[in-house]
Amino acid sequence: MRQPTSFLRENSDFHPAPTWKYCNLSNLVNMLEVRLAAVRVDLNSNTPVILLEEKLDARRALPVYIGAPEATAIALALQHVPVPRPMSHDLMVDIITSLGAALEKIVVTEEHDETYYAEMYLRVNNGSEIVLSCRPSDAIALAARCNAQMYVADELMEQAGVPIESETEPDDGEEILGQFRAFLDQVSPEDFDDL
Fold it and tell me: For residues 16 and 98, which has the higher predicted lDDT (pLDDT)?
């Protein structure tokens, strides 16, 4: 059972601690470097899905279903679309940078009850590493903004990866935006009542 997330305290004695009981899981398993191959809308469920494709071998991809706001945030980052005010992920990047840290990599580590888990690896200016547990969609949105490396645990790719039938080229921004505009035109708040 996972432990609850630790939150920052408002005192100078705070030292970052693992946010989850199984923090640093990715150090214990083999990892595959992946790239964000596509941001799509699953036609059966009308739900955004991202495909994390093996970077070296490109024979499998991990589909991760995400919410529409997260998909939009990822699409905006991939297209380098300027926004008038920082979005949440832009703000998180600003906070990380302001604290003298850098996002080095993200790792999608495991899946339990149809929910994926991920970790973000931050390198602090004193050389130490901070590992934070997070949702894969948030990790990928940040990695897209920071050009950080992305990984999937080898065991997870074995369990949940799908074979790639043809080579997938990275989406260009216009195609992604068009897909999400079509998705947003069809979705209503009532669609989320059962969630």
Answer: 98
